[in-house]
Each structure stands twice: as structure tokens, then as C-alpha cells.
Amino acid sequence: MREVVRRQPGIRSIGVLAFVAGLMGGQVWASTGVTLVGFSPEEEVNIRVYRSASPGVVNLTTTAVAHDFFLNPIPQRGTGSGAIIDRAGHVLTNFHVIEGARRLEVTLADGSKRQAKFVGGDPSNDLAVIKIDAPPEQLTVIPLGDSSTLVVGQKVLAIGNPFGFDRTLTVGIVSSLGRTIRAEGGRTIRGIIQTDAAINPGNSGGPLLNSKGEIIGVNTAIFSPTGGSVGVGFAIPIDSAKRILPELISRGYVAHPYVGITGQEIFPALANALRLPTTEGIMVVEVAQGSPAHRAGVRGGNEVLQIGNTLVRVGGDVITEIDGTRIRTFDEFSDYIDSKRPNDTIRLTINRKGRVSVVGVKLRERPRG
Q1: Is-catalytic flag, 126?
Q2: Catalytic-role residue among 126, 147, 175, 291
Q3: Residues 13, 147, 175, 204: which is the catalytic one?
């Protein structure tokens, strides 16, 4: 027998997508076995997505160990959210939620608790995978969507455990795309989804869903002067997660490509002040010893100048192109490198005091730790 959910007696259902015309005058959702009576189409979407996805959202409790002034160990507990992504019991969450945890406990929708083990994490994308041992029939898997097709104004739904309140639903829209945020530990994460769906402490690691009930982002942070939601939340695009999930599960980490330079973006005023041979590109400030860039002969700055209130190391090569593509900002440079794999070879066009040359740089795996 199907469950019937009514708003108020006597209110006629608008019912879109009904597959049995005139059935109790309401909407029947085949995926949930629920008849919705008297709800607007938008409310029906909210109810359907929540009922299908919320059983796949877990409440994650972490226990870490800190030390007091006398070096006595003090357990510290934290909470977050996660989404079940397969029948094997893998749970996708944020890296910062489980970072430093000695013990991981997952509470499922039925109230049962399971110990979880760390599988893999990638601080650069603030993503992690943990695993629980549970019968497959006890696990509700939330399907992964496609974040490349998102548009500003699209409806999204967030489910998580803000302030410890299990499986709370908030609704909003995609308010911007391609944001850059600085995560905990100073890590810069680009390509972020911005949403006005309320996200609060405890939501981190939970899914951001589209109207089909698919995960299109992993809620990761809020911008707030008070610590509470003010309508500016951020989520890691699910396409970023899909790209690295196989590595996280198979090897426990992601092998990121590494060049080994730090650089300063060039702009006309700086170019004029330093009498540089070009007005745009990346001026190499430092080259790490033994890095791929060092082995390829790329040179860093050899002199420190004060420009205004800033000390700038100057005299290094200026990178103007990578593989024939012009580079104007360090974000563009980093994004291009991140699109490659260790052992790939890139070609850098460099301007060294007015002389242009092209050097090949064989990338290697970024040092961890």
C-alpha cells in the first residue's frame, strides 16, 4: 500500500509527472512509493529528492587527540556529513572533516552506527573517502551527477547534519560558478560552486544535489562573519571528485603533477618599474632545487628589490606560454599544470632578458607532506 502525504484536506494537487492520471487527485512518485496530495510542483521535487537521497547521507563523528599545557592527551570530537557512493560502503566527504582523526564513526539513516576506516584523501581538493562495512541492502547509494552542465540560477538542494541535526534539508540555487576559495591550511581551491542554500557547521562533506537527486557538489565551506549561514556557501564540483575517486580508492592519495616554481604575475606597472621585456606572463621568483623546472634550466630571481611596501625577487625568467597557450595569471598556470599527469612533458616559452626560448619540462609527482 502506498503512503499518502497530504498538505491539507481539500487542496487540489497540481501534480506534474503523474503516471496514473487521477489517482487520488495527487502525484505518485514511482521511486519512493509516495502519493503527494496538495503540494506545488516545486514542493514535490523537494520532497522526492529528500526521500530518495537522505537515506544515503551519513552523520560522521570524528575523534582526534590534542594535548593540554602539560602534554596530557585530550580527546576532541568533531562532526560532519558524507554521502554513500557505492554498495561497497565507500563514503565521500571533505578532507578537512576527517583530517587528524584517530577514530571515525558513521551513523546511518536507520540510526545504526558503524566504525569507518580512512581510504584516501586529497587536501588539494578537500576531498576524502572513508569506508564502512555494512550489508549492501542497508546502504542507499546517491548517484553522481554532472557539474559541468550547471548554470547560475539552477535549483540545488543540500542535505547534511548542521549543528548535529541529522539529515537536514535546505534549498536554494546556484548563485555563482568558478569561484576560488582558500580552504583550511591555506590551500587554494578553484572552480567552486557558490550557492545560497543554507550551509552551516556540520554540513561539510554532505551532498549538494540537483532536482534529479544526483550529487553535483560536496558542501565544503561558508563565508560568514558570524559563523552562521548568510546565504554564501561553497561546494566542490562533483566532476572534481569523479576525476580523482579511482585513485583515492585504489592508492589512498592523488598523484598531482609538479613543476617546482613560485612566480609573480606581471602587469604593466610592474613591467615598467622593472623594465621587463614583456607586459604579461609569470615572472619566476624561485625554482626548487632538484625540481623538474630546475632540471630543465628554468631560472629564478637573483636580486631583491623594494617596490612600494613590497619586496620582490627579480631577475628570473618570464614564462609567457605553456604548450603554445598564452599565460597571463598564476591561476592559469596552475590550472594547466593540474590538467596534466606526472611524467607528462610540457613546453614552456620563456623570455630571459629579451631572449625568447622554449624549454621542455618533464613533470613529476608532487612531493607529499
Answers
A1: yes
A2: 126
A3: 204
pLDDT in tens, 308-349: 777 778 889 999 999 999 999 888 898 899 889 999 999 999
96 is catalytic: yes
Q: Are 169 and 159 in contact (CB under 8 A)?
A: yes
pLDDT digits 0-9 by tens, 164-175: 788 999 999 999
| Interval 226-237 mean pLDDT | 76
Whole-number pLDDT of residue 269 = 85
Among 96, 175, 229, 291, the active-site one is 96
- How many C-beta neighbours within 10 Å does residue 69 have? 5
Question: What residue ranges define each of the domains in the chain, with the CATH number in brackets?
Answer: 3-55 (no CATH), 57-138 (2.40.10.120), 147-237 (2.40.10.10), 257-365 (2.30.42.10)
CA dihedral 321, 327, 333, 337 (to 10 degrees): -40
| Beta-bridge partner residues of 121 | 128
Say what the pTM is: 0.79
